[in-house]
Amino acid sequence: MEYSAHANASVNPNSKTRVLFASLIGTTIEFFDFYIYATAAVLVFPKLFFPESGGSVALLQSLATFSIAFVVRPIGATVFGHLGDRIGRKATLVAALLLMGISTVCIGLLPSYAQIGVLAPLLLALCRLGQGLGLSGEWSGAVLLATENAPKGKRAWYGMFPQLGAPIGFILAAGSFLLLGAFMSDADFLAWGWRIPFISSALLVFLGLYIRLKLHESPEFQKVLDKQKASKAPFKEVISLHVAKLIIGTLATVCTLVLFYLMTVFALNWGTTALGYTRDSFLQMQLVATVCFAICIPISAKLAEKFGRKNTSIAICILVVLFGLCFSSLFVAKQPISVLIFLCLGLSIMGLTYGPIGTILSEIFPISVRYTGSALAYNLASILGASFAPLIATALANSYGIAAVGYYLCGAALLSLLAFACIRESKPSDAVDKALHNSLEVQK
C-alpha cells in the first residue's frame, strides 16, 4: 500500500469535531435516502409503479430500478472523482449531496402508474439514476475528508466515521417506516404515507449543506493545489498508471457489498414473503441487528490500526465464509429468535468488514488521483457486489433453496480474500505515519 504524508496545518485548519461530523452527516443522509428507496422498492413500488405485472414480476421490476443506481455509479465516480481531484473535496461533496437530496425528494412527489401510466416508472428510474450518481461521489469524498484531516496514527479511526453513516442512515430509514406503520393504516401508507420519508429528507440535506459549506479544503489536497500538482486527467491517470490497484480495490470491496445487500434488501424481501414474517416485525429485527452493525465498525477500525488493514480484512473474510455456511440453518420460517440471531451475526460481521474498507481504498492511490481511484474502485464493486445481489439471491433461493444464497456469499468472500492477499500488508499506522513524517522532514 502507498501512504501519503500529512501536510502541515493549513492557514484555516478544520476542527476535529467539524471534520468528523461533516463526514458522518453526509453519509448518514446519503444512506438514509438510499435505504428508504430500498425499503420502498420491496414494500411499495411494485404496487404503485408496476401494478400491471403483479406478484413476483412486479417485485423483480421494482428491484431492477433499484439496480439502476449501481450501474451508473462508475459514471458518477468518474465525474465526481475528476471534480474532487481537480477543484477539491469540499465543493464536490456539496454537489454530490445536492444531487442525491433533490433526486430523493422528487421520488416522494412522483405520481403513480394509475395517474400517469408508463411515465411513472420511467420517472422513478430517472430519479433512481440521480440517487446513484449522487452516492457515487459522496462516499469516497466523505472518506477522504476524514482520512486526509486525520492526525498521525488515526487514519483508520477517522476513516470509520463516514462508515457509521450507513447503520445510522438505516436506523433512521427503518425507524421512519416503523413509525408510519404504527400510526396509519396500510391503505393510508400505500396511498401517501410512504412519501413522507422521501420528502422529509430535504431537512437532513439542508443540515448537511450547512455543515459542509463551513469546511476548508483538506490539508493534504490543499498542498497539492498550492503546488499546482493536481492531475489534469485523473481518470486517464488511474486507468493507465494504477489499473492493478483499481482491480484489487474493486475485488476487495465486493464481499462487503454482497453481504450488506443480502442482509438488508434480500433479507427483507425473503423474510416478508417466503418466510411469512410481517413487515413491521422484520424491520424491528433488522433495526436491532443494525445496532450491532454500528458497534462493530469502530471495533474494526481499532483492529485495523493494531494489526494492519490486510490481516484484519483477511480474517474477516474468513468469518464471512463461515457465516455463509450457516444461512440455511438460521434464516428460517416461524423461528424469529433464529432469524434475529442470523441478522445480528450477519450485520455484526458487516460492521467488521465495512469499517476499514474506506481507509484501505484511500491508502492505495496517490493523493492527486485518490478521489477518482477510490470512487471508481468502490462503485465498480457496487456493480459486481451490490447492484444485482438481491436479484441473484432471490433467483438462487427460488431455484435451489436458501443455502445457495449462503454459497453465493462464500464465493464473494473468497474473491475479496484473494484481493486482500495481493495488497502489501500495512504496519500499524502509528509506525507508518512516524516514518512518513520523518521522511518529510528529511526532504525539507
From TrEMBL:
Segments forming domain Major facilitator superfamily (MFS) profile: 19-428
Spans through the membrane: 20-45, 57-80, 92-110, 116-135, 156-180, 192-213, 246-270, 282-301, 313-333, 339-364, 376-396, 402-423
One GO term describing the cellular component: plasma membrane
Cellular localisation: Cell inner membrane
Top-level taxonomic group: Bacteria
Gene3D superfamilies, sorted: MFS general substrate transporter like domains
Protein keywords: Cell inner membrane, Cell membrane, Membrane, Transmembrane, Transmembrane helix, Transport
Topology versus the membrane: Multi-pass membrane protein
Molecular function terms, GO-annotated: transmembrane transporter activity
Entries under SUPFAM superfamilies matching the protein: MFS general substrate transporter (SSF103473)
Listed PANTHER family: INNER MEMBRANE METABOLITE TRANSPORT PROTEIN YHJE, SHIKIMATE TRANSPORTER
Name of this chain's protein: MFS transporter
